[in-house]
Amino acid sequence: MKSKILLFLIIFFVLVSSCARFSSKGAYLYIPELYHKSGVEAYNNGNITVAVRLARAACDNYSLDDCNLLGKLYREGKYLDKNDNMAASYFNKGCINKNGYSCLYLGDMYNIGAGVPQSDKKRDEYYMQGVDIFMQYCNDNISSGCRGLGESYILGYVEDPYEEGINYLKKACSKKDGAACLILADYYFYRADNKSEAFTYYETSCSNHSTEGCMKLLDMYNRDKTKDIKKASPIISKADKMCKSGAANLCLYLGDMYRNYSRVSKINPEKSFDYVRYSCEFNQPYGCKVLGDMYATGFGVKENDGSAKSYYSKSCSLGYSAACNN
Description:
The protein is built from 17 helices and 2 strands. The protein has 326 residues and is mostly helical. A hairpin with a 2-residue loop joins strand 1 (20-23) and strand 2. Helix 12 runs antiparallel to helix 13.
């Protein structure tokens, strides 16, 4: 009996070891899908190939946010070959099943006749359908509904007072919707020119796990000399944890931060390399390109042309076309 238990344990540890990847500071299990609950989350974190794979599987099971993501990717043609017919199909699937954003995007396609016939009537119908869906969700105290409704106002899908949209976004943000807080912060920073309010909402966005919110919060610490840089330390620690949990975009940001002197960090080639390596391991296309550059120039790592070419190739395969010529 003891020999069977011993054999089982040996097999188990061999299997675990085969899945493990090691960093210079410890070991972690590297299975990208485990870091993300959905294709949307993977995409927001910069893990594009995993995002597409998860989104396809989830959309087939009627995860409407993932259907909407696929529609956007086909519409943009950045990471998938541009295909307006496929985009309209995914937006239609999302809209039928009450994804408000899909309805708005489908209305946009009818507005210009992309993948569907041009029709002002259909455009207005889908715009209104999207707004109605958001209103229903918001009335049910679902934060994403209030966020979508707020965006509908400030992006002009609803011809009503602009301030109403801000109020809906504030309602969503108060429910710890980090994405809504980020939209508010961007509004105050770029449109209202109110840096104080922007800073407050970037803080709230970051505290509610928005990777972009954390990046922009650190940017404000770097740019605004009136800010106490000591207060940035907890943000950097939080960003570090989020990075190592799969937030590839944040890893790349931290790598860039330590590559260039800033108020909150000094140049540290080794730290920069580690963070950029994380971003590439999480399949951030541009991160792999930067990692190739680091090997090519010997920044933070010993110069190695072979490794540089390997990472340029990975970057190219992940969709960053500028790396294909390196």
